[in-house]
Request: fold
Amino acid sequence: MRPFQMEIDRKIYGTIFDIQGHSVHDGPGSRTLIFLKGCPMKCRWCSNPEGQNLFPEPLYLKQKCIYDSLCVRGCPERAIKIDNDILLVDRKKCANCKEYLCAKVCCSGALRIAGRRVSIDEVFTIIQRDRAFWGNDGGVTLTGGEPLMQGEFTLNLLRKCYDSYIHTAIETCGYVSNKTVKSVLPYLDWIFFDLKHINEKKHIEATGVSNKLILDNVKLVASEFKGRLIFRIVIIPDYNDSDEETKAFADFINSLPLKIKEVNILPLHHMGKEKYAMSGRDYYFSDIIYENEERLFEIKRIFNKNNIECNIGADTPF
Reply:
């Protein structure tokens, strides 16, 4: 039984960088995905680098630039300059910007802003518009970025959806306070919990943060969450794809008080590579090839041998 409706704080605003409808890979049925800005981790393989900063920021498509300097003159933060036909953006200065004139005056479309401030009601209006296309099994999935970085906004949006009998899911890395995680559990039906590595040193090496808080939050969710918990692991060649590392994942999952244990393994892809250049970031995985299909099936067999259901990529039972 769902709780009585609670008052939603409509004065809370969040920052999102995308909304996608008709997704069929992030929960049951056809779903609306809300991409929230901000992530405490800097995973080297991140497919949404434009979602890492909490604030809106410019994306620059060099091929479209005509170097007319309108963006340089229009930027109130003096964050843009052109040096030898190279447009340079100091994105740290963009954190204070409220106008984003650089993109507004760019007539060639070389600059656009990733991220916009929205209210709970604005997002919910879009959700309600999409609702007619979900069928019986669809709903809303919050992703990012890390949606729990914007804890108040995420909590109030989930409450709004839950009170409206909308199926709710979240994808999280878990690197937030225990209190934040605990606050959203009553308003979620599904959780996709991303795991990177069990070894703390290797976790820091690739993400920039320790995994201690993450593993603590996994234990919290496994103990208290009443919905469906699915672990997601991006398989990175020579990082977390060995038999020993797979067994470490399996041992940790088997230590949790879960009746059903599910893992969704995802092969590394390079679809976000262009966005690194557009957001002024270095991409570390240009020379890394995809994990071969047979190796993915070997990893799946290790999980299955340890009594953990495992699905590869989009081949999921939902």
Notes: The two ends are 23 Å apart (CA to CA). The chain has a mean pLDDT of 94. The domain at 147-312 is CATH 3.20.20.70 (TIM Barrel).
